[in-house]
Amino acid sequence: MSRGLSRQWVARAVAMAxxxxxxxxxxxxxxxxxxxxxxxxxxxxxxxxxxxxxDIQFAIGLDANGDDQITWGELQQKQRELxxxxxxxxxxxxxxxxxxxxxxALQVDEHTDGGYAVLAWSGRCPQQHGPLSIQYSLLFDLxxxxxxxxxxxxxxxxxxxxxxxxxxxMQFAEATTAGAQFVQYLWQGVWHIWIGFDHILFLLALxxxxxxxxxxxxxxxxxxxxxxxxxxxxxxxxVVTAFTLAHSITLSLAALQIISxxxxxxxxxxxxxxxxxxANNLVPMVQGRWLMAFFFGLIHxxxxxxxxxxxxxxxxxxxVSLVGFNLGVxxxxxxxxxxxxxxxxxxxxxxxxxxxxLVGGSWxxxxxxxxxxxxxxxxxxxxxxx
Length: 386
Prior knowledge:
This protein is α+β, with helices and mostly antiparallel strands. The protein contains 11 helices and 12 strands.
């Protein structure tokens, strides 16, 4: 084996190992969300809080017998401790004083990523009018990536927000402008593309070959870097435009409840799209990557819509909020492209990129997405440590 060829294989092995490690890290630190729904009418307030069972297990422990299965009985045994733990990490104020609550019956529910405990409270606030303040700190001491997805109905006005370590205390007015709603949903769109590992992996799988040309598909000797940044930019523009157009269509249709698909079907198809895009980099089947971007972008749009459905669309500014969320997704997507493309262009002639990043990265993406597909399609847990 020649020295040049040896270096190529070393570069591939190093890159693939690094990318698999990074992918494993992303899986092990999969985004943790809770769903907080608050309804405040005058001085009457009610709260529903869906918290993932895996997060509760991580924080206070639920699996009493250590069999990696959380039963209803085990959850009930921890009900008081769970109520106390959760209520200590959430407070509401209206009228200069704290709202008081009484716990309701504990329930369970299923979201796309597993089982959730459903906690509920009803109570009263000191005053019937004025802004409502929410202080949220669930899991921030254990997981800085955790976020609370808030849907608030305040005297008939719908608000949504993402509550995190830097936004754990928020105040909401009784009335809000369309501009404020636009900004809220714009940021939520940006945030949800950044924490959507499957969406990011699909986009990167499509972008990896953008700075390369192939004379003979499937052979490293036929791969060379594009001569001009403009050529790579146009290739990326075609992919991003097709993906944007496609997911904008289905995001709007699903968010407006014109079309609805089962979440397991959508999530499984999204994983399959990553598998196909990565496999296409290894054994080219579709020459026009923009075609893949458009076709699978239609499926990804339903995935974005599921997040928007959880947050809720305000009836008074439905169109503005929908446009804001969609634009936020695009801005988040462009931020990823802005980081990736210049770096890939600089490295395009190197064996590290041609053999390591393209081949190793595509294999890593394929394997991770294949595991996602098996988990989602067959309701299995391959990554038992998560």
